[in-house]
Fold:
Amino acid sequence: MTEITRPTLIIDKEVCLQNIERMVKKAENYNLRLRPHFKTHQAAKVGEWFKRFGISQITVSSVLMAEYFASNGWNDITLAFPLNILEMSRINRLADSIKLNVLLENREAAEVLAGKASNKIGVYLKIDTGYNRTGIPAGRTGRIDSILDILRKNSKLTFKGFLTHTGHTYTALSTNEIFSSHFDALLKLKKLKNRYHKEYPGMELSMGDTPSASICGNFDGIDELRPGNFVFYDLMQHNLGVCEISDIAVKMVCPVVAKHVSRNEIVIYGGAVHFSKDTLQNTDGKQLYGRVIISQDDEKILLDTKNYLSRLSQEHGVIKVTPTHFKQINVGDLVEIIPVHSCLTANMMGHMITTEGEFIEMMPKY
Amino acid sequence: MTEITRPTLIIDKEVCLQNIERMVKKAENYNLRLRPHFKTHQAAKVGEWFKRFGISQITVSSVLMAEYFASNGWNDITLAFPLNILEMSRINRLADSIKLNVLLENREAAEVLAGKASNKIGVYLKIDTGYNRTGIPAGRTGRIDSILDILRKNSKLTFKGFLTHTGHTYTALSTNEIFSSHFDALLKLKKLKNRYHKEYPGMELSMGDTPSASICGNFDGIDELRPGNFVFYDLMQHNLGVCEISDIAVKMVCPVVAKHVSRNEIVIYGGAVHFSKDTLQNTDGKQLYGRVIISQDDEKILLDTKNYLSRLSQEHGVIKVTPTHFKQINVGDLVEIIPVHSCLTANMMGHMITTEGEFIEMMPKY
Structure:
């Protein structure tokens, strides 16, 4: 900490390991394969921490990320993004060296895949269970059938099953809403399994968001779980009631550069280029970009939500504080900020440092 | 274009050169020194384009950025960020090899600077002219005097003048509001010049935001202009009435990966990790993350605001379109998106490609 002079993303390895272990055990308890999403950390070293717990299959969100982890020894990867047909040659190259699964949700991409796949590729059909971002609406079995027909044209392609991302749990207003979105998705997927498992006895069901993977207790009929964020968690997950503050493994350490007593504001070196710009609504109705931890007598104190990161410009952050805490924070101090969305914050930084001082490089951006 | 297979930030060099030339001429007309802010492009190659127009002095927003441009031949740099006293040793190292100016706004940092500056450093006092982010409120001459007293303790330090960033022009609701914020800032700075120029005859006034630098016509008493965004411009500036769409030099080219006719939505490969998350309010009151250009018969067509980038997750973007345009855009097409905030978008990408195909690397993130 004493060597930090500019915004630095600190990662608590012990907390990460606990988060991984908890999810691994949960998957074991429910007889699920855990195929964690690696887009949150994007780091080979953090990937190694998963290997200790027997994880050998992963999820990624881009060809670039698949290539990066493949080159770091991962050989069973699901590319959980609608197939980008412009990247077919790189996908074929990847499938030559590792077990690769891709996602389809439309006939156009299925035709290109069937026409161009030159190596064995597993195919999941992406099902929209209510998030309304991507996927085939669960009831549209006509579209499913026609895509399956196309897949049969190329013997390199294997239909692996149905996959969903219940992303609407991220905007749930209560844990009950998470339970109900999850259960609704579960029922929709099971209905599809009932319909298709005779023809495709090996087919599986894959679900994946961190909120439901963390707190739900019914995975009946599900084969695979693909959460990602849980390795770090963040304020968004805490706000959803999905994790404790003590489960959040990443914090941004930022130097204090100015104080403005008339506004009870502290200015930090730490802005949109460090945190990204996701927000939560604070208890006062304002936008919150992060919560504040200060050091006092060698102790770390999490300040209440009257003290919060309230504004970000490119390199500046503005912390609103109460008059009491205003006096305790000085120019030249380091404060810690718990980020709203750890995936985007880590992606911004491109590297992290463990609390033990180990440097963790993330994958290159291009 | 035909080689693009994933989100790619394209920069039109001709448009950049026009933007630079226009601002250079404006500065000449008003007898101002142009010290452009390089945080927008963060690229040595783009910096070279400024040199053609005689630019030799620049502004940056971090020590890291100062080091990067110093190592690329720039030897007169203003570090326009409140002095981060934790980086004093690097600041001293920089000041050993180039002409460096720093910003002060409080006594605490002034004391550290006076105590530790071991090479010649120019000092601007940051004045808050109404943006309420950083700076000494213009009327607080007591604080100004006490900082100037501290600076006198170290003969390496030279008071260079007063500097402001009229950042509230970015949230102006009309060009009139930009004019009035700018004029108000101008009067506040001139009042300070009147008060201090006898004691400091060499002192200057420096202003800097792109909105007022682009459209205002009164710079009486001002010595230096420090806009940055104008080199690229973006939708935010266009929305403010500060530039034409044709002045915007950067566009993100993104592959189309899915279509959902029931929602009139097009899904692109291009998300928060490419665009960052700044938004504008669209004509329908919704959040807009970018505007859409499609190619038709070798022609580029900017779609109206009924067609817009409406949602971003980590790697996905969702474009809302009218039924007519829905039919014209197909899976596997490339669409161009004009970003809301080019500084943050370019920062996200870490590189750009010119319309002529030249690769432009930006500064490293750490």
